[in-house]
Amino acid sequence: MSHKPLNEPSFRESVDLMFNRAVKLLDLSPGLEEKIRVCNATYTVRFGVRLRGKIHTFTGYRAVHSEHMEPVKGGIRFATSVNQDEVEALAALMTYKCALVETPFGGSKGGLCVDPREWDAHEMEQITRRFAYELIKRDLINPSQNVPAPDMGTSEREMAWIADQYNRMHTTDINAKACVTGKPLNAGGIAGRTEATGRGVQFALREFFRHSEDVARTGLEGKLDGKRVIVQGLGNVGYHAAKFLSEEDGCKVVAVIERDGAVMRPQGLDVEAVRQHIMETGGVKGCPNADYTELGNSVLEHECDILIPAALEGVINLSNAHSVRAPLIVEAANGPVTAGADDILRQKGTVIIPDMYANAGGVTVSYFEWVKNLSHIRFGRMQRRQEEARHQLIVDELERLDRYLGDAWSMSPGFKEKYLKGADELELVRSGLDDTMRIAYQSMREPWHTREDVSDLRTAAYMVSIDRVAQSYRAKGL
Ligand code: NAD
After folding, report:
1. Domains by residue range for the chain, with CATH
2. Which keywords annotate this record (predicted)?
3. pTM of the full predicted structure?
């Protein structure tokens, strides 16, 4: 069972330990090391909202880890467990993540101590708008300085409220929509943002499986097809990752772990049905065609090929790392493996695709959304029909050839339709995301393969990121 032991470092200390491990392998001055590691500022706010006849006080945070590039970027989390240590750890991860996938942002993160399930939609709107007001007032939400996005407990609904709140307070700002990403499509969002983080997890795994030497380090063989996957947390990230991997790559989702326990099925669960059951009942208990256990965390230790923690941090820690049997862990959540557990798993030879890479799909598509908002035009609007017209020219020629050659040759079935269709925004977003995930993997893999003192992908990822942040500081003359 994964009860976090008392001698386990905090989340922020865990991130620092991982940072220190990597930075030792780089040749930076100690002053610059320290500058990159520390969190620049954390704002704490307590505000009251009158709800159900009385005033309730809420505590929120916005941490800015690094402003080597602006705006800074990072989600806003709604959960009762939110605290300063957590937002600072998450803000630091954002800095490294943005550097790794080359999105031009510094790192930030926000959080509000609230259980969104305790309040109805109207009440949540009042709470969210009030929190946003406090942050906007201090430019901690601002298109050119600090741009939040969804995280645990928040979704496009909250982002739409935040965008509207900013708009009310900056009525003449032509770029107001770019103050937050992850908005609904009809409020300035971008196609494919909701699925982006889960889609990124899929692209990360596909890229990993393209490199047979990397797969060999896990002891696994072959392609993604048929691999047994366990997912913890069937929320935005976990659901999309599980859905795409099972529907498009032939993976079998053999267990889903949620707050109230876990459901299992060795032949593979119907991800859509499990999700539907969670939406209807609030948990996985009673899900049809599956075995249930209330000891959810024990399922992290079950045999499988790929373990995808996609809920919260610290779930694989000193108490259970020894028992985790998966040879490959993909950190869809932020910080699911503590620094202590990371040491144990590394020694066991478990391969971990680290959070700062694995879940970077969200910030990547957020970047596309921000660019779309600033350019005030949907991706593909200018080129799509022109591209189709040029393709039509080739298809006309091929049709002429087809007529000329008679039975001797014809176009493959479906070719014409596929070739003629110009890319819409969703296809462009997916293509940009795929490209980003492939390139980032290759940059992270390089030190893993070329340096003897780098034994894991996390250290390699930190090295690439820290080096890029350092270059950016050096370019500024620091
Ligand atoms: P979400 O709120 O949509 O989903 C979280 C899921 O985890 C829910 O289904 C919840 O019931 C479940 N859960 C919560 N506590 C649990 C527990 N103790 N055991 C098992 N399940 C539990 O959140 P999300 O947006 O999917 O985020 C999940 C993780 O991914 C977080 O670590 C977040 O920081 C990270 N992340 C999210 C995004 C994004 O775009 N949303 C981007 C990058 C990283």
Report:
1. 39-187 (3.40.50.10860), 195-380+423-478 (3.40.50.720)
2. NAD, Nucleotide-binding, Oxidoreductase
3. 0.95
3-state secondary structure of 189: coil
Contact 96, 131 (CB under 8 A): no
How big is the chain by its Cα radius of gyration, in Å? 23
Report yes or no: 315 and 309 within 8 Å, Cβ to Cβ.
yes
- Say how many Å lie between the CA of residue 415 and the centre of ligand 1: 40
The answer to the question of whether 236 is labelled as a binding residue is yes
Is 416 annotated as contributing to ligand binding? no
Q: Which residue has the tokens 């003192």?
A: 453
Q: Can you give the pLDDT at residue 478?
A: 73
Beta bridge partners of 48: 57
Q: How confident is the model over 308-364, as pLDDT tens digits?
A: 999 999 999 999 999 999 999 999 999 999 999 999 999 999 999 999 999 999 999
pLDDT of residue 476: 84
> Please, what is the average pLDDT of the chain?
96
Q: How far is the CA of 312 from the centre of ligand 1 (A)?
A: 6
**Residue from 98, 151, 195 to probe ligand 1 pocket by mutation (most atoms less than 8 Å from CB):** 151
pLDDT value at position 477?
A: 79
> What local confidence, expressed as pLDDT, does residue 3 receive?
54
* Measured distance CA(453)–CA(25) in Å, rounded: 8
Cβ–ligand 1 distance for 312 under 6 Å, the answer yes
**477: number of Cβ within 10 Å:** 5
pLDDT of 36 strictly over 80:
yes
